[in-house]
Amino acid sequence: MEFTKYHGLGNDFILIDNRSSSEPCLTPEQSVQMCSRHFGIGADGVIFALPGQNGNDYTMRIFNSDGSEPEMCGNGIRCLAQFLAELEATALGAGIEEISPRSYRIHTLAGTITPRLKGNGLVTVDMGQPQLSAASIPTTLVSGDQKIVNQSLEVAGQSWSVTCVSMGNPHCVTFVDDVAAVPLETIGPVFEHHSVFPQRTNTEFIQAVTPTYLKMRVWERGAGATLACGTGACAAVVAGVLTGKSDRHATIELPGGCLEIEWSQLDGRVYMTGPATKVFTGKI
After folding, report:
1. Which CATH class is domain 134-266?
2. pTM for this predicted structure
3. Domain boundaries, the chain
4. For residues 110 and 251, what is the distance between their CA atoms, to the nearest angstrom?
């Protein structure tokens, strides 16, 4: 089986051309083995490029490094867009820059997502409108139709002020004075598996340096500590606007690099711009 390795700010994925079948060609267990950094290729997840459905160009499925299947992945869909453009360019005997700019409608478990190649490895993604009700996240922290903004949550014997956002997948955002001081490896799993999140949660720890520049560390549901999280960066700006700590357009500094995020006041949609980098191709 052929594969291509991509990363989005260090959040790395194994991309597989799965367009000949409507189901992933690997099981979750096989994907776990491929994601192993000691016994496999090494990645945060495996992404399958499947045929389109519901009028979309393609379908995205992803298995995390623990075998779970998330609804969406922001860095992953940028990598998928670059991968698809490369496949199309190869079929045409052209270079990838020759077919840029190019946009795709991608069916995901979080709905239709639209990435657009801008050239030079950059991709802008229309991430859709954030969902803010407890039921849509989902969380039982408050009743179903309420928002969770600066809500107190007890985690590991400490009270945290959290704001919850769904970007098609669940996020719990908390602002801290010093993001580098957060014991991510110990507190992250406790947040992820907290009883108020029935489908677990991604957790973002944010330091608002200025209203337009935020530092972020993330514990991803199903992948652990990663160098970047696209949906998490989007959730961070939404949470920052709701709590008065961020402007609607901000740079998010992650361990792997920076993303540009805008929560548009015109249409209420979140737009993410960042790189997708090809690492290598191979066969396994």
Report:
1. alpha beta
2. 0.92
3. 2-128+276-283, 134-266
4. 24
Q: Chain-centre distance of CA 5, in angstroms?
A: 17
Question: If you ran DSSP here, which 8-state letter would residue 170 be given?
Answer: E
Q: Which CATH class is domain 2-128+276-283?
A: alpha beta
Instruction: Encode the chain (284 residues) as per-residue pLDDT tens digits.
Output: 999 999 999 999 999 999 999 999 999 999 999 999 999 999 999 999 999 999 999 999 999 999 999 999 999 999 999 999 999 998 888 777 776 678 999 999 999 999 999 988 899 999 999 999 999 999 999 988 999 999 999 999 999 999 999 999 999 999 999 999 999 999 999 999 999 999 999 999 999 999 999 999 999 999 999 999 999 999 999 999 999 999 999 999 999 999 999 999 999 999 999 999 999 999 99
DSSP 162: E
What is the distance between the alpha carbons of residues 170 and 192, in angstroms, rounded to a whole number? 10
Same CATH topology for 2-128+276-283 and 134-266?
Answer: yes
Measured CA distances, 102 to 92, 120, 146 (Å): 14, 13, 39
Residue with tokens 């490029």: 49
Q: How far apart are CA 86 and CA 277, in angstroms?
A: 12
Q: What is the DSSP string of 22-90?
A: SS-SS-HHHHHHHH-TTTSS--SEEEEEEE--TT-SEEEEEEETTS---S--HHHHHHHHHHHHHHHHH
The catalytic site residues sit at 73, 229
Strand, coil or helix: what is 228?
Answer: coil
